[in-house]
């Protein structure tokens, strides 16, 4: 068992927080991504939409995916591509539909004539409320979108990457993939699963020349708040009184929360992704915390890495891979 002192954990968190603040003070220059084929999920708004534009401006050939086409957001992205002369293509992709995922990946690969260089798994949802109030429908939707959706898309893209022995996969997680906020539904549970799945994937695809980076945003003012309120309101409307009665004040707020007061710049996330891609492939980190405020998960990230090294670092089979992924 690894022991990490509280002082050490807090010190690590403080150091990372200062570094992140300094990095945001001067936005990094765009990397040269010419020739890179990038597919991003959840591009109708928020991090996905901003990342699609940011990487396209860096010269990448970007496939911005979203579900339920046609829709106004898709038209906006296409208009931007025309106006700014960006290599930015909209594809329909519903991460909860395996056939839709397969079709989108196949269309992107056909357009470039090979496998993708970069995949950004970003599409996700949140449904708030006490765990007891989360019914099977809400629980299934959260895991199907946030966890199985990421798995479906990564699984579809990996054969093309492996064939070329190169590629990089991002998983947009959350601070709440490492720490827990009460009454946030199953959001933390899904993001904890994402953290575990993509760390495991990082070990397994390292030998194929493929890297994995987990982005851990703090709270940002994106449209996920609007969508979360809709889904939370629907859950509240159908919640059984025998479950809701235990948490009257919390249930009353479901579907009526306001995330608009947050002032953090959502561009922090596309800039962090671009900065990872600017680094040489072997030096790209497994995890990148991104926040305009505290970064409480830093000590947990460090303790987790040390525990992995302690458990598997001397293994002749897994040791070299685990150490390489953690930069040891």
Question: Topology, pairings included?
Answer:
Elements: H1 6-25, E1 37-40, H2 46-57, E2 61-66, H3 72-84, E3 88-92, H4 98-112, E4 118-121, H5 136-164, E5 167-172, H6 187-205, E6 210-217, H7 224-238, H8 241-244, H9 248-253, H10 268-278, E7 287-290, H11 298-312, H12 319-325
Parallel strand pairs: 1-2, 1-4, 2-3, 4-5, 5-6, 6-7
Helix pairs in contact: 1-11, 2-10, 4-5, 5-6
Give a written overview of the molecule.
With 328 residues, this protein is of the alpha/beta class. It has a single domain, classed as NAD(P)-binding Rossmann-like Domain (Rossmann fold, 3-Layer(aba) Sandwich), CATH 3.40.50. The protein contains twelve helices and seven strands. Strand 5, helix 6 and strand 6 form a beta-alpha-beta unit. The longest helix is centred in the middle third of the chain and has 29 residues. The protein is globular and about 55 Å long. The two termini are 19 Å apart. The N terminus is likely disordered.
């Amino acid at each position: 068992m690894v022991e990490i002192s509280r002082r050490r954990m807090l010190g690590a968190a403080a150091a990372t927080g200062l570094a992140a603040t300094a990095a945001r003070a001067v936005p990094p220059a765009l990397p040269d991504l010419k020739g890179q084929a990038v597919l991003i999920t959840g591009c109708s708004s928020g991090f996905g939409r901003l990342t699609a534009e940011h990487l396209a401006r860096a010269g990448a050939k970007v496939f911005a995916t979203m579900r339920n086409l046609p829709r106004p957001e898709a038209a906006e992205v296409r208009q931007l591509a025309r106006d700014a002369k960006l290599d930015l293509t909209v594809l329909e992709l519903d991460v909860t539909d395996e056939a839709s995922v397969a079709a989108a990946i196949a269309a992107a690969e056909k357009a470039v004539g090979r496998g993708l260089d970069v995949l950004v798994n970003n599409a996700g949802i949140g449904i708030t409320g006490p765990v007891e109030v989360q019914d099977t429908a809400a629980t299934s939707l959260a895991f199907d979108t946030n966890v199985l959706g990421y798995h479906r898309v990564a699984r579809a893209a990996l054969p093309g990457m492996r064939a070329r022995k190169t590629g990089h996969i991002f998983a947009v997680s959350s601070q709440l993939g490492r720490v827990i906020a009460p009454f946030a539904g199953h959001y933390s549970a899904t993001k904890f699963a994402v953290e575990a799945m993509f760390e495991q994937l990082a070990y397994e695809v390292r030998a194929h020349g493929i890297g994995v980076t987990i982005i851990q945003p703090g709270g940002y003012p994106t449209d996920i708040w609007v969508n979360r309120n809709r889904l939370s309101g629907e859950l509240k409307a159908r919640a059984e009184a025998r479950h809701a009665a235990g948490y009257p004040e919390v249930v009353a707020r479901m579907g009526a929360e306001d995330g608009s007061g947050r002032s953090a710049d959502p561009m922090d996330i596309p800039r962090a992704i671009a900065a990872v891609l600017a680094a040489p492939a072997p030096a790209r980190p497994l995890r990148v915390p991104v926040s305009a405020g505290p970064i409480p998960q830093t000590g947990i990230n460090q303790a987790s890495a040390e525990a992995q090294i302690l458990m598997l670092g001397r293994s002749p089979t897994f040791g070299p891979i685990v150490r390489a992924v953690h930069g040891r």
